[in-house]
Amino acid sequence: MEFLDPKIEQYVSDHTEKESDILYQLYRETWQKVINPRMLAGNIQGRIISMLSHMIQPKSILEVGTYTGYSAICWAEGLAENGKVHSIDINEELEPLVTRFFEKAGVNHLVKRYYGNAMDHIPTMKQEWDIVFLDADKSNYLNYYNMVIDQVRPGGYIIADNVLWSGKVIEDPATFDEDTKAIDAYNKYTQEDERVQSVLFPVRDGIMISRKL
């Protein structure tokens, strides 16, 4: 589902800071060579991520879902001094591509990578998070949220991507597939959770930003 008139979307793009040459190269190579390139953040969302990172100036970010590394590079742009992005992905086959572009972007030392099941990694990561970014398997969004909420500092953020799920969340609930059910449940849960303040932004495929109170 296209949420915006294509002319409005083009206007938004025309009036948003352009991605770096390195990010553009990564975008093109992902679309040319990698399965499911729609998973890539892209320029507008990437610039939003970069802006949020610069605003918050985080020391510690947990990213669940590295994919080809586009969003991790954007998060790294606004890190505080000695800050770190900790990024988990299930697909180790993408590691050479990710490494190559992290090195090109000069952020390889800023991103610590983990491969395997995030449900196994997260409990071992005993530290406080300024930002947690969820962009992996939708069926586990609520599990990830509840695993990290106590480790997010007061005033920190849990940010979830794809929470509009191509518009499927507004269809008849009787027709929901498992991923749509999981995303709808996540959206409802974060709105009702008194530990956070949540706003759903209709950017690209939907971004839920939850600030821990």
Descriptive labels:
single chain, 213 residues, alpha/beta, seven-stranded mixed sheet, 8 helices, 7 strands, 38% helix
Overview of this structure, please?
It is a single chain. The protein is α/β, with parallel strands linked by helices and 213 residues long. It has one domain: Vaccinia Virus protein VP39 (Rossmann fold), CATH 3.40.50.150. Helix content is 38%, strand content 21%. It contains eight helices and seven strands, in the order αααβαβαβαβαβαββ. It has a seven-stranded mixed β-sheet, with helices on both faces. Strand 4, helix 7 and strand 5 form a beta-alpha-beta unit. The longest helix is centred in the last third of the chain and has 15 residues. It starts with 5 loop residues before the first helix and ends with a strand. The mean pLDDT is 96.
Helix/strand order = HHHEHEHEHEHEHEE
What's the CATH architecture name?
3-Layer(aba) Sandwich
CATH superfamily: Vaccinia Virus protein VP39
Q: Helix tally? A: 8
The spatial strand order of the largest sheet comes to 3-2-1-4-5-7-6
Q: What is the CATH third-level topology name?
A: Rossmann fold
Major beta sheet summary = 7 strands, mixed
The fraction of residues in strands falls at: 15-25%
Mean pLDDT: 96
Oligomer: single chain
In angstroms, what is the radius of gyration? 16 Å
Q: What is the SS-derived class?
A: alpha/beta
Distance between the termini: 33 Å
| Total count of strands | 7
Overall shape: globular
Q: What ranges have pLDDT less than 50 throughout 5 or more consecutive residues?
A: none
